[in-house]
Every structure is written in C-alpha cells, then in structure tokens.
Amino acid sequence: ALSQKLITLDIATGAQTSRELVVDGDKKDDSEQISLQTIAVYKDGYMAVRYHYTQPTQEEIDSGVYESETSYDIAILDADFNIQSTVSLADLQKKVEESGGGFYVQYSASDAEGNIYISLDNSMYVLDSEGKEKFKVDFDNWINGMFVTSGGQELLLRISQAWMAVLQIYILQVMAGCTS
Predict the structure, then answer these.
(1) Which of 4, 5, 42, 120 could disulfide-link 110, Cβ–Cβ 3.0 to 4.6 Å?
(2) Separation CA 178–CA 45 (nearest Å)
(3) Do residues 40 and 147 touch, judged by C-beta distance below 8 A?
(4) Where are the alpha helices (DSSP H) in the chain?
(5) What is the chain's Cα-based Rg?
(6) Would you say 49 and 72 are in contact if contact means Cβ atoms under 8 Å apart?
(7) What is the pLDDT of residues 40-68, one digit of tens each?
(8) 127 near 141, Cβ under 8 Å?
(9) What does pLDDT average to over the chain?
C-alpha cells in the first residue's frame, strides 16, 4: 500500500501531529496505481484528490496495442485519515477533455457548506459535495494556490506571482444562484 506521511500544525499552540495516510487502500488490483494530488480540510476531516492510473500489462506494452486509463476522485476522509467515501470527478474530467482541455487538478479547498473548489490551470471549478459542477470561474493567469479561511467563508487564491485575490464565498454562491 502507498502511504504518505502528513503533518498537521496547530497554529495557535505550535503542536504538531504526524500521521500516515494510506492513499491506495481501496485500489481495485495491482495494475491500478493511485497517487495523492492534493489534500485539504473538509468538514470534520479532510478531502484528498487522487489520481488513478491503470497500467497496461507487459504483454500489452510489448504488443504496442494498449490503452491506459486515468481518472480522478476525491476521497472523503475522517479526522484519522480513514476513507469514508469517494466522489468521482469522471464527469468533469470528460467535459474538460472533450472541450480540448487537459485535466490536471492542481489545488483544492472546501468551504463551510461542503462545496469543493478545484483548480485546473487558470480555471476554478466549484462542485457540490457529490462532485457535480455548480459553476466555473476563469482567470487571466494561472492559479498558483488556494485555501479557505478557518471560518470557511473566504477563499484565497494566488493568481500568477503578481497579485492575490480574496473572493468571498457568499459572492461565489450568489454567482451560482445558491444563496441561503
């Protein structure tokens, strides 16, 4: 099993904890490789964006006729990094790839309402907790980082190296027509 050592830091006290996250504990078989793309706080635990790659057999490689399969999902984890559920990103990946774009999740975040934010190049997708797209925001430059404040009400994006933008999640929800 592939595991990653993750360290959490309590900013108020400086206390550190170190735990192992088993990234591929739910893989189907030995031909499937799962790697961790990004991890973020999600509700009472965490969410881990994972990249799945199914390797062709050596016989398929030798024949020169094979297809490798790639996909992404989000593993919803409890506070001890145990996988509670997964959210497929297959529909979004298909949509992006069919429109000629590449699908590579760079950053992720979530808000207090359970919405999921992922960045692909210079676009940010806002998804509901089931992975369904709510809306997309395009920027003029690449997104170089994102996180949500501790209250889950503001999303901070680092866009290129020139400037930073704080977007209030309420404003994003208004854009999507889903204010409460």
Answers:
(1) 42
(2) 24
(3) yes
(4) 58-63, 90-98, 169-176
(5) 18
(6) yes
(7) 989 889 999 999 998 888 888 888 887 77
(8) no
(9) 83
